[in-house]
Write a structure and sequence with these properties.
It contains nine helices and eight strands. By secondary structure, the protein is of the alpha/beta class. The chain has one domain: Rossmann fold (3-Layer(aba) Sandwich), CATH 3.40.50. The relative contact order is 0.15.
């Protein structure tokens, strides 16, 4: 699956299951911005993998001087320009390497749900560090490999190259020149619990549903719609909590890592 992962993500539609649509109804994604909005006043912000632009627009409205959203998917950028344009927001349809941005030009970097998509995560984090100013902050989230899949398995999500453990993510960040200021997580679960096993089953079921929906079309979608109405549809387990990025206990594993970093 390593071959063509960038191409796959570049052509991912807003209905692929890989990203939200323009209405931005996923509260997990919404809550990721809660720690960012009060730290962008009059600052230059880079959002890498800006998706449909909801977050970049929100950051711009929170008082950022300038926001640059870099996004690989043409479909997502088209939605961003249509629904979430602002005078202080620029959307670039490119990979980070293609974006041709000046080094040391951003005060804040935001990268939510990106690391798992790139072929060279260490190089990606190093590039973000090069684009950041010396005192810059970065906010990063990525799925927890321990919560998303069994050891040794490939990600169920075809748009993910890999999903990383806490130690792997922290190690890559430090290697790239980022200092970990705070480690948090969304939907923490007891380590080794049935809750984690259930979450892994949910992830597999979700992507099985996405594959079947693409191959079987409307008849399958009608059946699944009926299942939802009688309470048998898929429901994100994390939606049962606040979805806030919270401190993670020593014996817990979150569904999603959430790191606050500084340029070391």
């Amino acid at each position: 699956m390593t071959q063509g992962i960038e191409c796959l993500n570049r052509h991912a539609s807003n209905r692929s299951g890989a990203r939200t649509d323009f209405l931005y109804g996923n509260i997990l994604e919404q809550k990721r911005y809660s720690f960012v909005l009060n730290r962008v006043q009059n600052l230059n912000v880079l959002e890498c993998a800006s998706g449909v632009g909801w977050g970049s627009y929100l950051i711009a409205r929170a008082g950022a001087r300038r926001v640059v959203g870099v996004e690989l998917s043409e479909s997502a950028v088209s939605s961003a320009i249509k629904y979430y344009s602002a005078d202080n927001v620029t959307y670039i349809n490119a990979s980070l390497a293609e974006a041709d941005l000046p080094e040391a030009s951003f005060d804040v970097v935001v990268s939510f749900e990106t690391l798992e998509h790139v072929e060279n995560p260490g190089g990606f984090l190093t590039k973000l560090r090069e684009l950041a100013r010396l005192d810059a902050a970065m906010f990063l989230s990525t799925p927890n490999g321990h919560a998303f899949k069994n050891d040794g398995e490939r990600p169920a999500n075809p748009y993910h190259l890999e999903e990383y453990t806490r130690d792997e993510v922290i190690g890559m960040c430090r290697q790239a020149g980022w200092k970990v200021v705070e480690y948090r997580g969304q939907y923490p679960m007891p380590r080794g619990s049935d809750q984690i096993l259930a979450y892994r089953r949910f992830i597999k079921a979700y992507w099985t549903h996405q594959r079947r929906a693409r191959s079987l079309g409307i008849p399958y979608l009608l059946v699944t719609l009926a299942a939802r109405r009688i309470g048998r549809g898929l429901s994100e387990p994390a939606f049962t909590c606040s979805c806030d990025p919270v401190p993670v206990g020593p014996n817990e594993e979150p569904a999603y890592h959430y790191l606050i970093l500084s340029a070391a």
